[in-house]
Amino acid sequence: MGLRRMWLGKSLILALWHRQPSRYPRYVDSHIVIGQDARGEDVRVDMEELLATRLLVQGNSGSGKSHLLRRLLEESSGMVQQIIIDPEGDFTSLSEHFGHVVIDAESHSQAEIEALAARTREHRASVVLGLEGLDVELQIRCAAQFITALFDAPREHWFPALVVVDEAQMFAPSASGEMAEDTRRLSLGAMTNLMCRGRKRGLAGIVATQRLAKLAKNVAAEASNFLMGRTFLDIDMARAADLLGMERRQAEQIRDLERGRFLGLGPAITRRPVAIRIGAVKSGSRANASALVPLPTAPREEMQALLHKELDKVVPPPPPPPPPRRAVEELEQSMRPAPMNAPPTRDRQPFGAPAMASGDHEEMLEEILAELASDPHITFQPSASQFQSFMMACRRKGATAALLDMTAFRRRFAIAVAGLHQLDDETQGRVLALGDLVDDDLLAPFLLIARDAAQGGTGPDEDELGRAYGTSSPGRIRRLLDHLERKGLVVTREDYGGGRSISVPGIETV
């Protein structure tokens, strides 16, 4: 009797549990249809098995690889969380039909990308990381940081998710290429973690590549399911045949596959290799650039006019050549002794003339420094040449240059180049106090940054900062900002799109 009551009690609890709405929907059938075989029968993929065994897709450009991934994502949408690393912008249209959130990497910084990845796991959002607007190396770094942040999510956020990486040979290359070594290690480590250790964290990697020979073997080896499309190189056909368990003489059929047809094998697909024709999709990719489009019918004269219309406004004229350097000649001329009976010249103060008053001297000095700083080429000259130009200007105007030695001139000239006269006296004093911590050769660009911050700006542009520093090298400007940031003088924020903002601690907006 007791056993019967116990059995009835368990049955009642199970019945009540099944009637309660579940927080996460339970799927009776986890299979999706990706296409048909040669006999016209549906070929299914077991998504639960795929989450545990991962997938590798290979196919040359134009073989239908992106179409296959789109079919797989569309059919499993709503069944499992999807995260797509999209270097070409092919999958952003999923947002229009299936509600995927598109993350434009170009408009976010590294810290924001990592925060977005953590929130993606926390809230189980299906997202597309769009990398299209970035350079190749920035695409690789951004994807690596995003995948690493997915991998490092706390244990309570380890929900199952598909992580689709298109053009995986970029992010997990088999050999070092033209990218920086630290970038390659960062990306290869992220991809290896995804494919080798991601399963325990709920991450199921789906990697797609144009060439198996260019994909790192330790990344490809972790996939147990394969969909092999058309390829022509012998080394890629041989590797594909080995993964499919085919003999070498059977590898020739991989070369003969039509567009949109793949050979599939794996525990989530089939136990024996099967040829699959991928089904239709709902969301379209961008316009196919390989399709024929009718040419314009405009006559040659009209087309020529269209090509050359306002060309001078599109392409700016080249900058004028720098003026010839005559500093040495002018200095030699000023040092020549004057004739005995020659009248006093404008370059010399007559003997016995009254000395210039202190206030007049300071005003004349400010005028000379401002005039010197207005020369667009002066900051690119060595400090000794700048000082010689300053001395000659003082001689021409009858000022006493001896009151400024070389060290004092460099600091006063940096203040003039930075344009600190635009600030009020109190703010200018705070900026100059911070400038005491900066070396003389870095003072002008720092004061320029501080002046811009005090005026509420986000930092001077590349050309303005380069002129103040006396360089046209972006690398030197980056190293300058890194040095100032390490000393705690500035705080920089860069996004992947190339935008940059610079703030100065201790400087308030005027």
From TrEMBL:
<feature type="domain" description="AAA+ ATPase">
    <location>
        <begin position="51"/>
        <end position="419"/>
    </location>
</feature>
<dbReference type="Pfam" id="PF01935">
    <property type="entry name" value="DUF87"/>
</dbReference>
<dbReference type="InterPro" id="IPR014588">
    <property type="entry name" value="ATPase_Atu1862_pred"/>
</dbReference>
<dbReference type="GO" id="GO:0005524">
    <property type="term" value="F:ATP binding"/>
</dbReference>
<dbReference type="InterPro" id="IPR027417">
    <property type="entry name" value="P-loop_NTPase"/>
</dbReference>
<protein>
    <submittedName>
        <fullName>ATP-binding protein</fullName>
    </submittedName>
</protein>
<keyword id="KW-0067">ATP-binding</keyword>
<dbReference type="InterPro" id="IPR008571">
    <property type="entry name" value="HerA-like"/>
</dbReference>
<keyword id="KW-0547">Nucleotide-binding</keyword>
<dbReference type="InterPro" id="IPR002789">
    <property type="entry name" value="HerA_central"/>
</dbReference>
<dbReference type="InterPro" id="IPR003593">
    <property type="entry name" value="AAA+_ATPase"/>
</dbReference>
